[in-house]
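Review this chain:
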Amino acid sequence: MATPTPDCAAKGLAKPGSRPFAPSAGEEGSSPFDRPPGRSAAAPRRLLLIVAAAVFVGEALIMLALAFLPRLSLVAEGLLDALLVTILILPILSRFLLRPITAEIAVRKQAELTLQSEVVERVAAESRLESSNEELRALTQEERNQRRLAEALTEATVALNSSLDLDEVFDRILEQVQRVVPCRALAVLIVRDEWVLVPRHRDRVEPWQLLDGGFHIDTFPRMRSLAESPRPHLVPDTELDPERPGIPTLDWIRSVAMAPLVQDGQMFGFLITLSEHPGAFSSEIVRFLVAFATYAAVALDHANIYDAELRARHSAEIMSETSLALTQTLELQTVLDLLLDYMQKLTPYDQGAVALLESESRLVVRARAPLAQAESSEFALPAELEVADHPQLRVLLAGQRGLSSGKRSMPPSWASEQAMRVD
């Protein structure tokens, strides 16, 4: 009787589509569990034949022995007969019956151990296969994500480079990012000194009224350090961020991902995505934003150059028209009014005025626009200004240079050096 070997299971597991634990062509019936039903049914008959043969041989030998012995009583003959049958039958039964049964039990135990070993190996192999499948699925998903991001970057590059209009470039930047990054809102932020402008933003729920005009860079504490040292930034959960700004209208923001806009080594803004769910952005999203911000920065740089050229051409045309219009009259008030009209075309303003130096120490406002608002507004320039009372005007007149104010929400304090900058 052959004993099954572990090679069967190994062969079954090694070949895809093979039947595990199935014996090969030359091993059919090698396991005791693989015997046909006929052999198991023949075992009782074999046992009966062995016992009958042992009893027959034993009785024959006993009869021969009693024939040579003196006659005994019936009880003595019965005892002697039973004793001799037992002595003769036990070795026969042991040789032909017990030993095969013991061997059969040993073989079955060995087969059971082999089967258990094969089951354990099969379970381990299935576990390894499942682990390999998980890794393969993860790699497949990663490859799919990388392909999707690469396709999005390619399409975004084509879209960004297809226009030089600055507003259209802003819109296409947000459109391409929104195709790939799942978020509630996103925006392009442009940093100008201490001020952060928001030229374009998108929000699926409601528009941003608070940040439309821009905000000071210290409104968000971490933004200044990011502007000074440009790098991508990820906040998985703003509830755990100690530097989260306490702005009620922005309390829905739970996760943030940012990438700097850098051109020629100079950071000029950020590409930012916002979500109302914590953990919405991963490091993969940040890598995509960084890659996309590189293309967006180049497109914005080209659009800015083109926009500057358009503005320079527009300014030259306005200056030419202004020069032509001013030479058509010699009346001072008409000249001043025309000057304000063309200044509005050149540099749009809410209120404007022309002040003439009447003496070395006094400026007098001779024209205003719009006139009705200028006379009643707290932002209006006084009708007369004493140069001695305003240090910045002294600098202006002495150096014949311009003044500009970077604080949008503050009325122009003509005596405040902090509010003005000499250009």
